[in-house]
Design brief:
Length: 226
């Protein structure tokens, strides 16, 4: 039963909330039952898949965990029985590993410098800000968009919108990918992934990459720190 105009006159905010409030659909449910959402999700996992080097490829299911963040999403690990792992645990693992390897990279890049002086000069947390991680992911959106490799979705009969990694979650993608790579490939391989692909990028002397790593994005902002 809808509220009458007289009731709305006296209690509009309360009754409007009672009438219109609906619980949001859970992300796993939307993926299974909403074709438009599934199209967006699959397009975004392809972006991540195009980003990753061949030796660190992840399944589409795992990539889904790196672009959508919801307390209803559970990662299933079998050892030997299925175990549910909260997404935030993997995210925290990736964040901690990233900070560890940033400290390591700073110290090994400048072995002649006293560690305390180096950390005083370059705060490692400034290399791992939300903005820098956002810019790291955004460069792949831009690269693929310039090559017309991004999917599109119709807004109306004449307008198409390019599907990219959502702005609100771009800063989470990188630590989540690190956590997932660590879980699938182990610590030694994840060190290479973080050190070379994430932190150094095209500055790597081990691999040939064409994207900007965190160090380059940071130094572009800070200029002659290194």
């Amino acid at each position: 039963m809808k509220p009458t105009p007289a009731l709305l006159k006296f209690f509009p905010p309360v009754l409007a909330n009672i009438e219109n409030k609906r619980p949001p659909l859970k992300v796993p449910f939307k993926y299974e039952h909403v074709p438009r959402f599934r199209h967006k999700a699959d397009s975004r996992t392809r972006i991540i898949n195009n980003m990753l080097p061949d030796e660190f490829k992840l399944s589409n299911r795992m990539l889904f965990y790196s672009i959508y963040f919801d307390h209803d999403i559970k990662l299933v690990y079998k050892d030997p029985k299925p175990i549910d792992i909260e997404q935030t645990r993997i995210l925290d693992l990736g964040s901690n590993l990233l900070m560890l390897r940033i400290y390591h990279t700073l110290l090994t890049n400048r072995p002649e410098t006293d560690p305390i002086e180096l950390i005083d000069k370059v705060d490692p947390t400034e290399i791992n800000t939300l903005k820098i991680r956002h810019d790291f992911i955004n460069q792949f959106n831009q690269i693929l968009d310039s090559k017309n490799l991004l999917s599109k979705i119709s807004i109306n009969s004449t307008l198409l919108k390019t599907i990219k990694i959502e702005k609100s979650t771009r800063h989470k993608v990188l630590p989540m990918l690190i956590g997932l790579v660590h879980c699938q490939y182990g610590y030694e391989q994840s060190k290479k992934f973080i050190d070379e692909w994430v932190i150094r990028g095209k500055w790597s002397t081990v691999e040939s990459y064409s994207h900007r790593g965190l160090l380059e994005i940071y130094t572009d902002k800070k200029m002659d720190v290194f």
